[in-house]
Amino acid sequence: MAILIFSVLGGVLGLLLAIASRVFVVESDPTVDKIVAMMPGGQCGQCGKAGCRQAAQAMADGELAIDQCPPGGASLVSEIGKILGVSSSSEEIAPQFLARIDEAYCSGCTRCYKACPFDSIFGATKQIHTVITDICTGCRLCVDSCPQGCIEIYTPNATSQSWIWPKPSTSEVTS
């Protein structure tokens, strides 16, 4: 008898949830959805917003410049610019930052590993951790979580793989 009562109750509540989801639907802006899909999705807060959806909404509303997502880099700025029909307000994209762990002081507590939203820290409990620089966005969340203070943020030197030729200004081209 109890099984029958709970089955009917579950069915009725499920039906009520289905009806409520259709009645109280919140329409989202397709432009914001496109921007969110392109963003790194780490919710790092480097742009000054709580997360990527809030940043995308602010960019779509014109409240936030399109070059305010450092983890996204220049490619994200150009793609958002194409969607919104605007160009970057600054000549250069903010420099990339990376985290570096001083392995002499790392205790392997895994707090940095757990704090990293991009999964760019490699290591096991009670073992030395290291940063995978190809994935790191320099969001600084690992720095705040490290009890030993052995993580620093730095700007990497340009190499033949990471160097980008600067674009000439329009005044240089026309003269």
TrEMBL record:
UniProt cofactor(s): [4Fe-4S] cluster
Annotated residues for binding of [4Fe-4S] cluster 3: C116, C136, C139, C142
SUPFAM superfamilies reported for this sequence: 4Fe-4S ferredoxins (SSF54862)
Residue ranges of every copy of the 4Fe-4S ferredoxin-type domain listed in the record: 97-126, 127-156
Pfam families: Fer4_21, FeS
GO molecular function: 4 iron, 4 sulfur cluster binding; electron transfer activity; metal ion binding
Bilayer-spanning residue ranges: none
Record key words, sorted: 4Fe-4S, Electron transport, Iron, Iron-sulfur, Membrane, Metal-binding, Repeat, Translocase, Transport
Cofactor binding note: Binds 3 [4Fe-4S] clusters.
Highest taxon in the source lineage: Bacteria
Database matches in InterPro entries: 4Fe-4S_dom, 4Fe4S_Fe-S-bd, 4Fe4S_Fe_S_CS, 4Fe4S_Ferredoxin_RnfB, Elect_transpt_cplx_RnfB/RsxB, RnfB/RsxB_Proteobac
Protein's name according to its UniProt entry: RnfABCDGE type electron transport complex subunit B
Organism from which the protein derives: Vibrio astriarenae
